[in-house]
Each structure stands twice: as C-alpha cells, then as structure tokens.
Write a structure and sequence with these properties.
Structural class: mainly beta
Strand content: 25-35%
Helix content: under 10%
Radius of gyration: 13 Å
Shape: globular
Order of helices and strands: EEEE
Number of strands: 4
Mean pLDDT: 78
Distance between the termini: 13 Å
C-alpha cells in the first residue's frame, strides 16, 4: 500500500464477493487497521474494508514506482 509522503505498508488483500478487506500482519496475526493518507487534520482515516460497489477499477493499472518483492 503506497501513501503520499509515507513509507509503503506491506498488506494482504482478501477479495470477497461484495467487499475487499486489507489486512496487515503483526507477529502471527492478521489485523484490520485504518490508514492515514495525510495528516489527521487533512483527511479522515481510510477504512480497511471497501465495498465492491464503491471501487473504481481500471483495466490496465500500471505502477510507475519500483516494486519490492
């Protein structure tokens, strides 16, 4: 997960029929954790649960950043 002006966060994505769930691994557990995209005064936290009806999808999503595997 890439955020402006912040370090990338490794996440696991769970794709369900009606939603996408973003999980972070802490020790041996996966947790739901809200993300801050900017300073708290600028924006509300981003939810780790996203309804499919609210997603914006592109056929060709090209990443311009270097990927770390």
């Amino acid at each position: 997960l890439r955020r402006p002006n912040k370090a990338p966060v490794p996440v696991h994505i769970l794709l369900l029929e009606e939603m996408v769930v973003i999980l972070q691994k802490e020790s041996e557990k996966f947790i739901l954790k809200f993300f801050q995209s900017g300073t708290p005064a600028q924006q509300a936290p981003l939810s780790p649960i996203i309804k499919m009806s609210t997603l914006l999808v592109r056929e060709n999503a090209v990443c311009k950043f270097n990927t770390v595997l």
